[in-house]
């Protein structure tokens, strides 16, 4: 008993060694595969856990007539280390998010309004395609190629969540045609005609 009383103050004062509740990103530090280093807790503020950018309509005046506004760790440092992030998807009539993957995250898409045709392609090349309506959610498994198209005559809005603060985004068309890989090699590796490769490189800003 005497021993317990003696050690009690030690036990109580050691409570600063508790589980780490969060690790708000210090965006000035280096990014590693497990995220950014943590901001000092004394510098963490409520704003670190709030991101207001998803309330703002994206600008769809572009070649794909779509806008993706991301709340990944770079925009939203509070999600660092928490295995979660979000994005807003605006699709004008005719808009498309071209075939793409998030190498590090599964995506859950919630349709706020409008009609969206969405699909993904499995590793065995099976296609899972659906026309989504307001209120629908669809899940896109990690790393698989997928796309979203506005299937209606009005703008469509969706919110996506990801099970990583760094989902990654690789657009297939950009990967193939916005690069400086010689067109002859793109032709050889894609089975497309040389002229088609040149045309797509010009359209998407590639060279070579
Ligand atoms: C949307 O983007 C286009 C093309 O970059 C630009 O000309 C236009 O001013 C932008 N509109 C708004 C409201 O920011």
Question: How would you sum up this structure, described in words?
Answer:
With 208 residues, the chain is α+β, with helices and mostly antiparallel strands. It has 2 domains: 41-168, Jelly Rolls; 175-204, no CATH class. 18% of the residues lie in helices and 29% in strands. The chain has 4 helices and 12 strands. The chain has helices at residues 2-13, 172-177, 183-190, 194-204, and strands at 31-32, 35-36, 66-71, 85-91, 96-101, 107-113, 116-121, 127-132, 137-140, 145-150, 156-162, 170-171. A 5-stranded antiparallel beta sheet has the order 3-4-11-6-9, with no helix packed on it. It has a 5-stranded antiparallel beta sheet with strand order 8-7-10-5-12. The chain has a two-stranded antiparallel sheet with strand order 1-2. Helix 3 packs across helix 4 (194-204). The longest helix has 12 residues, at 2-13. The termini are far apart. InterPro entries: Cupin_1, Germin, Germin_Mn-BS, RmlC-like_jellyroll, RmlC_Cupin_sf. Residues 61-198 form the Cupin type-1 domain.
Percent helix, as a range, is 10-25%
Mean pLDDT across residues? 93
Poorly predicted runs: none
Strand order of the largest sheet: 3-4-11-6-9
Question: Radius of gyration in whole Å, from Cα?
Answer: 23 Å
How many separate domains?
2
Distance between the termini: 80 Å
């Amino acid at each position: 008993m005497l021993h317990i009383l003696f050690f009690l103050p030690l036990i109580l004062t050691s409570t600063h060694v508790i589980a780490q509740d969060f690790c708000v990103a210090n965006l000035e530090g280096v990014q590693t595969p497990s995220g950014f280093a943590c901001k000092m807790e004394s510098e963490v503020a409520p704003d670190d856990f709030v991101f207001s950018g998803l309330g703002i309509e994206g600008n769809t005046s572009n070649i794909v007539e779509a806008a993706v506004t991301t709340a990944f760790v770079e925009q939203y440092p509070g999600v660092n280390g928490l295995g979660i992030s979000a994005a807003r998807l605006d699709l004008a009539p005719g808009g498309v998010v071209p075939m793409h993957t998030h190498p590090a995250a599964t995506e859950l898409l919630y349709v706020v309004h409008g009609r969206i045709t969405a699909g993904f392609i499995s590793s065995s090349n099976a296609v899972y395609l659906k026309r989504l309506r307001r209120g629908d959610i669809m899940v896109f498994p990690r790393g698989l190629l997928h796309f979203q198209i506005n299937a209606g005559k009005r703008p469509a809005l969706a919110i996506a969540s990801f099970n990583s603060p760094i989902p990654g985004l690789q657009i297939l068309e950009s990967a193939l045609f916005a690069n400086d890989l010689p067109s002859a090699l793109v032709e050889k590796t894609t089975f497309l005609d040389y002229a088609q490769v040149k045309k797509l490189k010009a359209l998407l800003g590639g060279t070579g």
